[in-house]
Amino acid sequence: MRDINELEITGSLATATQENIDALEKHFHVTFPDDYVQFLFAVNGGSPALPVFNYTLSSGREGASAVSKFFYATGNNDDQYGIWYNTEILRSDFTEYGVDRPVIAIGENGGGDMIYLDTSAGSPGVFIFFYASEGSTPKISDTFTAFINQLRPVEEL
Questions:
Q1: pTM score above 0.90
Q2: DSSP 16
Q3: Four-point Cα dihedral 30, 35, 40, 41, nearest 10
Q4: What is the rounded CA–CA span in Å between residue 1 and residue 21?
Q5: Which has the closest alpha carbon to 53: 134, 6, 129, 109?
Q6: 108 vs 130: CA distance, rounded Å
Q7: Cα torsion at 26, 31, 33, 37 (round to 10°)?
Q8: pLDDT for position 61
Q9: What is the CATH topology of the domain spanning 4-156?
Q10: End-to-end distance of the chain based on CA atoms, in angstroms?
Q11: Which DSSP symbol is given to 116?
């Protein structure tokens, strides 16, 4: 994974604790990828100065979006910028579409769409849930590391 300092993340909390991560994994019945755990230990949430990423829709059309905020791993389950709070919302939204997947909300773009990790064995990766597109979920990358490595300045949006 690239040096996290290159992302110039502001507004992060104190690094996540193993206790926070264990509680999230236990509650949501998932195991976080090692690269994501390393990220949470290095920087716990916040807004990156290099936010832009690419995605490809199922139609083949390519697009770009930007991370406005990475969510925090905290002991406060009601924190509106917390992983717990937002994963509960995301999973509820998935249920409305008849989808049951082991997903974890990790951030959002400026439009309120959620960026999430799918931890299922068959198709792990980083995706974005587009609310305005009836729950379209294009894949951003195969791993969290690949996601972080592609982030670039907003001037390239």
A1: yes
A2: P
A3: 120
A4: 20
A5: 109
A6: 10
A7: 20
A8: 87
A9: SMI1/KNR4-like (3.40.1580)
A10: 22
A11: E
